[in-house]
Each structure stands twice: as C-alpha cells, then as structure tokens.
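Per reviewer request, we include the raw input and output of the structure prediction for the construct analysed in the revised manuscript.
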Amino acid sequence: MFITMFVVHMFLNKPFILASKSKSRHALLKNAGLNFTTTSPLCDEELVKKNLLKKTINKRNLAIQLAKAKALSVSLKQPDCLVVGSDTIIVFKDKIINKAKNINDAKKKLQKLSGNKHQIISGVSVCYEKKQIWSSQQTSTIYLKKIDQKQINNYLKKTGKDILSSVGCYQVERLGPQIIKSIKGDFFNVLGFPLFPFLSFLSKV
C-alpha cells in the first residue's frame, strides 16, 4: 500500500500513539528507541472480541482484527495522528485461550498448558485518517515444561497477581523461562508485539 512521505515523516519525527496500556509493549517500543505516547483503546475490547468470534472469522486472524479495532478506535478521534494498535492471543489445540481472571484460573491454565505446545499470535495495525494503512501478524510456538501442581503453586507465588496481565500466565521477560522449555519463532512476538515487521515497515515505506 502506498504511504506518502508526509506520513513517513510523521512517524520518524513526531510521536505516534500506541493504543495500548500494556507495560511490556511500552517497554519494548521504548527500548527500540521509538518516539511515541500511549493511550487506552477507545473500544470495549471484550465486546469487539465477542462480536468477531460470532462471525466466520478465522480464529488465527483474531489478533490482527483486534489490533485494528484498537488503533481505529483512537484514529477516529484523532485522525491526524498515526495510531498503532496491537493484540495477542494464544491458540491451544485450535482453541483460543483467554487471560486468567484470577490466580485459581491461572493455575488451571498452566495445568492445561503444562508439557504441551501452543501458539502465540500477535498482530499490529497502523491507522491514519480513520483507516488502516498497514498491518502484520506473526506466530510463535511455545513449548512449556511438564510442571506439577507444586511447581505451579510456587511459580505463581513468586509472580503474584501481576502474572494475570500475561495471556499465557508467564512473562518470558521475567520468570517465564522457569517454566518454558523452548520458543520457536520471533521472541518479540511472544512479548506481544511483532517488532521486526513493524521496524521493517518504518524503514521501507
């Protein structure tokens, strides 16, 4: 898709808006040396997700559709700004796994994922003037160690409720390696943002 040099200039010289309050995404983009501000998406994410799943949408395309909804919700209010939205989902045995609501729910999720592999799918969407101008989606595979109930309890005791912000109930940038066996694919994608495709977009347009 053709992107004007004016838009490129804005990206490189003016802070873009990250439509996310995710601490990990904020840290990832900040460490990459990008100039941006953050705001919460102006949409009901759970409602958008529910409505998308009612449609015939391929579940594996859900992350990029949610990313678009987040970015577009802010772009509609601030059309003259570049807005970036991102979302991450987990697919396990062809089913979407949602965030844990509490520690007990996190225990059940880790029991289910223990000793198995699952996919992390992260999507990113860039909107300008109330429309999407670029998007990308990446998939990584996570292999979890075989962990028993005692190990799960000890792990969650260390992480505390902060772990509930992680879709998979592990934070690969923190204590996640204690229960992760291996990762196949883009590491940044597991953190919740396809950084390499995004940087490539910035450098090539």
